[in-house]
Amino acid sequence: MRYKSLLALSGLIGIGAVSAIAGSSGAKAENDPVYVVQEGHVDQHTFNGYRRYGESCHRCHGPDGAGSSYAPSLTESLKHLSYEDFTNVIVNGRQNVTKSQNNVMPAFGTTEDVVLYIDDIYGYLKARSDERLPRGRPKRIGDDS
Amino acid sequence: MKLKRTLLGCTMMLGMAALGAGTPASANDELQKLQGDANQWVMPTGNYANQRYSTLDQITAANASKLHPVWSFSTGVLRGHEGGPLVIGNTMYVHTPFPNNVFALDLNDNGKIIWKYEPRQDPSVIAVMCCDTVNRGVAYGDGKIILNQADATTVALDAKSGKELWHVKNGDPAKGETMTMAPMIVKDKVYVGISGGEFGTQGRLTAYNLKDGSLAWNAYSVGPDEQLLVDPVKTTNMGKPIGKDSSVSTWQGDQWKTGGGSTWGWYSYDPATNLIYYGTGNPSTWNPVQRPGDNKWSMTIFARDADTGMAKWVYQMTPHDEWDYDGINEMILADIPVKGKMTKALVHFDRNGFGYTLNRETGELLVAEKYDPAVNWATHVDMQTGRPQVVAQYSTQAQGEDKNSRNICPAALGSKDQQPAAFSPKTGVFYVPTNHVCMDYEPFKVSYTAGQPYVGATLSMYPPKGENNLGNFIAWDAGQGKILWSNPEPFSVWSGALATAGDIVFYGTLDGYLKAVDSKSGKELYKYKTPSGIIGNVTTYTHNGKQYIAVLSGVGGWAGIGMAAGLGNDTDGLGAVGAYKQLSNYTQLGGVMTVFGLD
Questions:
Q1: pLDDT tens for residues B178-230?
Q2: pLDDT at A7 over 90
Q3: Cβ distance B41 to B87 under 8 Å?
Q4: Interface predicted TM-score of the whole assembly (ipTM), two decimals
Q5: How many angstroms away from the CA of B366 is the closest CA of chain A?
Q6: Is residue A102 situated within a structural domain?
Q7: Residue B303 forms contact with A (CB below 8 Å)
Q8: Is residue A142 within 8 angstroms of chain B, CB to CB?
Q9: In a domain, A62, yes or no
Q10: Do residues B199 and B177 lie in contact, with contact meaning Cβ atoms separated by under 8 Å?
Q11: How confident is the model at residue A145 (pLDDT cuts 50, 70, 90)?
Q12: Measured between alpha carbons, how far is B213 from B207 in angstroms, rounded to an integer?
């Protein structure tokens, strides 16, 4: 899956003339999924990540990954979480249920809409976390609206 | 003491009821009497009419400035606290969000805990709750406290001891069915609804026998006639029989099976008509292109016989929803002049931004006007057909899949969500907590998988163009369909209002204030910053002859999702003042009930 998005990416580079490929800072492994942001417009994968985020994550993690009253801001989390840790939490979920906390991150391991696009979701959130993308719906490369 | 006295009264009433209605002797006409006793607060809605009005008048517009907190109680639970406490005799019943603890507090002993009920629930249910782990409160009847747990179990507790008397499974969390609503009890039945409109549940209202939790009947919102409990000839819509297959004929194939129409709002009851009133939620998915048709009877006001469940009339406010404007908000029953004529009215402030006034006996539509001037998705409601006249630019159906429809007002949160309004028979005015938020909405194709979100749209929300406040607290004339006054609030007002004979209206704010305003002018009389943001409803009662005001604080719910980090603006307006007002800069989590009084 990781290779899929890399592949798509190299394709894009081929087509697009000058593309600012935003890499991420910090501890980034060689083949972590990457996102493309060109003058505020995103590639199809990153856009799909935004959409999948809206479908499966928004209701807890708030608009644009910005966090809610009870689930962490993923734009913050991705400043520290590795890609491995990210996928691990999403596939297996995480419960923090004690006397004082009732936090449940669902396991999405068998949810196709999430697992199939986990790299896209990562890419989108990483772009947000790297402050390459502002809040709100990103525009697709080629869109003018 | 009080209980004994009313039980006696109840036996007398029973004798009369048996003669009159010809229905079997009901265990619980007690409530009909109790709801008229302003010293207690015996149902979440204040009274059966859902007016949230109290005749108590010790606290007045003149002395409200002297209000102050007299005691408070921490629930020990962090997440969003909707609903409010009940007061029965000298006992106060306080509920919490998941894990849905219930406390009985002794008002004679400074709120000492008489008993505590801690349900055991599989926390994985939290994963399928749409918008935080809220619960809107418990109901009382026949010596029982009825609780709807998040995991779709309804439980009856002995009001005196907290001992579990019965429980019944009302839904399956593995299919995304959960419960958040407060039950209603009428006579020998308890009515409960189901949440899960974002998971493709088939919405329904269910009546259980209060005695033992056995099923009385199920009345679905969508589906074949026998599941709907409708009579094709006798059940009416806009004055006409609804006909055969009124629901399934408005869905493609068997899409109704995952069609939504959940029932998570506040219910009301009119003893004179013996009808219960409630609204149904959004059709599933949020992508309108995927479900052609009117999608009946989602987004509908239902009037059903309290005994049999048979629908007397229906009215669909938002046929073929394209914006997630759930129709579940409360139905307030009031006898008011409508366009000059005294009317047995039902008044409803819908998510879609229209304030509706109907004849509650016949379902005739009398008034439908915008209660927020920002509302733009429809120009008006056609009073002949009852249909909203949708503006193409804001129609996410017309714009289509994968198209971002912009600047639609209101946002999916609605011009008002579940936070119930109040009605004062003294002023004849409705007091409405509102949202003032618009959105971009982009539908996309999704497939249904049991227990997985079935949403199919991305949304961005922001205040109306050129405005800064995300909420208003308004006074509404339901006979004319007019705003009388409107107090802007920095955030959505997500707290249920209370009106009193002391000429005051109370409400809470997301940044944590309990406010008292003059019922005539809206002028602020008192405010106090509670420990957290308020999404609970304000309650009043007396103890030892003195009037108190109680409210739960504890920020969360849908408001906590959208506003904790501030609403994102549409990309153009990025950085505009106001859109980045972060609720998290004002308040943090934590459930506390605060009680206010005068010296």
A1: 999 999 999 999 999 999 999 999 999 999 999 999 999 999 999 999 999 99
A2: no
A3: yes
A4: 0.86
A5: 37
A6: yes
A7: no
A8: no
A9: yes
A10: yes
A11: low
A12: 9
Task: Report how many domains make up chain A.
Answer: 1
Phi, psi (rounded to 5 degrees) for B11: -60, -40
- Strands B592-597 and B546-553, by their bridges, are antiparallel
pLDDT tens digits for B28-62? Answer: 689 999 999 999 999 999 999 999 999 999 999 99
Q: What CATH number has the domain bearing residue A109?
A: 1.10.760.10
> How many angstroms separate the CA of residue A118 from the nearest CA in chain B?
16
Tally of residues, chain B: 599
Question: Which among B324, B440, B477, B570 is annotated as catalytic?
Answer: B324
Place of tokens 């000298």: B90
Tracing tokens 């980090």 back to the chain, one arrives at: B565
Q: Which residues of A touch B131 (CB under 8 A)?
A: 59
Query: Which residues contact residue B109 at a Cβ distance below 8 angstroms, ignoring those fewer than 6 apart?
Result: none
Domain containing residue B115: 2-54+61-241+251-576+589-597
Q: Amino acid identity, residue B251?
A: W
Which residues of A are less than 8 Å from B459 in CB distance? 54, 58, 63
pTM (2 d.p.)? 0.92
Pair of tokens at residue B231: 């009579």
The shortest CB-CB distance from B565 to any of A62, A95, A101 is to A62
Asked if B453 lies within 8 A of A106 by C-beta distance, the reply is no
Residue count of chain A: 145
Give the nearest chain A residue to B556 (CA atoms).
A69
Q: What is the per-residue pLDDT for B26? A: 52
